[in-house]
Amino acid sequence: MPEVLDFRKKAKIAIAALLVVDIAAVVMLFSPLVGSERSRREQLDQLWQELQRKTHEAEPLKDVDKKIAVASHQIDEFYRTRLPAQDSAIYEELGKVAKQSGVKIGQIRSKGKDTDPVGLRPVEIQADFSGDYLQLVRFINSLERDPLFFIIDSVELGGETSGVVKLQLKLETYQKASG
Q1: Does residue 115 sit in the same domain as residue 53?
Q2: Per the domain annotation, does 75 fall within a domain?
Q3: Same domain for 132 and 57?
Q4: Can you give the pLDDT at residue 178?
Q5: Whether residue 108 is found in the same domain as residue 150
Q6: Does residue 89 share a domain with residue 56?
Q7: pLDDT band at 93 (very low <50, low <70, confident <90, very high)
Q8: Angstrom distance (rounded) from CA 123 to CA 115
Q9: Is pTM beyond 0.85 here?
Q10: By residue range, what is the domain housing residue 36?
Q11: Lowest model confidence (mean pLDDT) among 27-31, 50-54, 95-99, 167-171
C-alpha cells in the first residue's frame, strides 16, 4: 500500500507539473510578447523591406575603389584639357569665341584669387561685349560649350542702339596654379 501512496504522490506531482506547462503554453500562445502569426509575418515583411532598402542604399559603394581610380583619372583629364595654365589662354579663348560668334569685345577686367588647396586659382572676369541679339546668344552658347571651363555668373543686357545690343558678363574660371 505504501507503493500505491508513493505512486499517487508522484502522479499528482507529474499532473501538477503538466498543468503548469499547459498554463505556460496557453500564456505563451496569447502573450503579446510572442505575438500572433499575422504580427510575426508583418514583422518579417517589414524587416525584409528594410533589408532591401539598405541593400539598395549600399549599392553605390560597391567597387568604390575602382570608382575612385576612374574619378581620379577623370579629374586629371579635366585639369589637363579644360583648365589653362596661363592668364593669356583665358583671354585668347574669349577672343576666339567672340570672333566666331561675330561679337565685339569691349573691356575685360579680371581678378585672380588665392590658390585653393587643390592647386587651382579662381579667376573672376567681367567683360563687355556688343553685337546683335542673335550673335550674343550664339556667343553665350559657345562659351558654355567651350572646351575651356567657364562658369557664367550673371548676364546683363544693355541698351540697343541701331541693332547693336550691349552685354555685360560676369564669369569665373580656374587656372592651374603655377609651381
Answers
A1: no
A2: no
A3: no
A4: 66
A5: yes
A6: no
A7: very high
A8: 10
A9: no
A10: 2-61
A11: 27-31
Place of cell 609651381: 179
Quick one: pLDDT at residue 53? 93
Joined together, the cell numbers standing for residue 33 give 510578447
Give the integer Cα–Cα distance in Å for 176 and 118: 9
Contacts of 147 by beta carbon, 8 Å cutoff, 6+ apart: 81, 82
Radius of gyration of the chain (CA): 39
Torsion of CA 129, 133, 139, 144, to 10 degrees: 110
Angle at 143 between CA 141 and CA 145, to 5 degrees: 70
Q: What is the separation of C-alpha 16 from the centre of its chain, rounded to a whole number of angstroms?
A: 67
